[in-house]
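lol ok so funny story. i was supposed to be doing the assay writeup but got distracted and ended up predicting the structure for this chain instead. priorities right. anyway since i did it might as well share w the group, maybe its usefull for someone
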Amino acid sequence: MNEKKSILIVRLSALGDVAMTVPAVYSLAERYPALDICVLTRPFFAQLFVNRRQNVRIVEADLSGRHKGVRGMFRLLRLLSSYNFDCVADFHNVLRSWIIDVFFVLCGKKVVMVDKQRWMRRKVLSGGGEQMNFVDRYVRVLERLGYPLELTFRSVFQYRMPELPAAVRHPAVGIAPFARYKNKTYPLSQMKKAAEILAGMGVSVYLFGGRGKEAEELGRWQNEIGGCVSFAGKCTMADELAIMSGLDVMITMDSANQHLASLAGVKVLSVWGSTTPSCGFLGYGQSKDSLICLNLPCQPCTIAGSDECRLRSFECMAGIEPEDIVQKVKSMIKF
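and the output, tada:
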């Protein structure tokens, strides 16, 4: 009788990057149902793994509490050692995950780290190259560990339809207008104009964002634009994914919400500024035909984003008209 094998997959942050592990993890679980798969991530990000198969479990790394600092890392290593993993897939490849890697190497386990293609970054930023999408890089890690697979993932709801926490009226367009970095964020006044145009055409517009200032801003949009509803700060991540799954299209930046919508299996219209799809972060299953990027000579100017525009013009985003976004939406759905 074959001994059951187990694998540890490590990805601790950030939200969008952890979301990009889901297609690989779920495809792995489907291809190898006897494989015990353990994903190490932060408690908040654990919410992404909804409707996972029985052979996928989550171990939470409380890096701001119990597992913080040197003592916390020892606690985490002691916890991980109790699972007796056969191999480790390091999807993160940073100092904290290196410590975990070294620990398991010393225990005689096979460890493979994701290739972040740092050597390609200068070429990409000069407009002469394109980095491999991170989901595909995760697949390569698993292949090197002896688990080749096809990406069969379509949605976290592909085997179980969600219960929508709120009714969605069609045509339905979601808008997530925020990103972590300023130069990845389409000007809010222009995105608000796009929302107004869509609502004026009879489209139901649903707004997504975080708590605090984002929720306050989108609350004002809801009050000022008829047919506009904000879910910002009101839903769990699982509820947001469920609502997104009922949309016709989702408008996002190069942000975590692009990847959340991809997990929900919805079409995404992504708007790109300082980064471009050549940086390797296009949402899973999304097409380059369903995005807006001006492809200026200065794009991309960063791989992950920043708060500065070295040309001080921000033309890569400001040059996109609200009407351009509306026309793109119309080409993606019929209404």
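The CA atoms of residues 87 and 110 lie 5 Å apart. The longest strand covers residues 36-41.
back to the writeup now i swear
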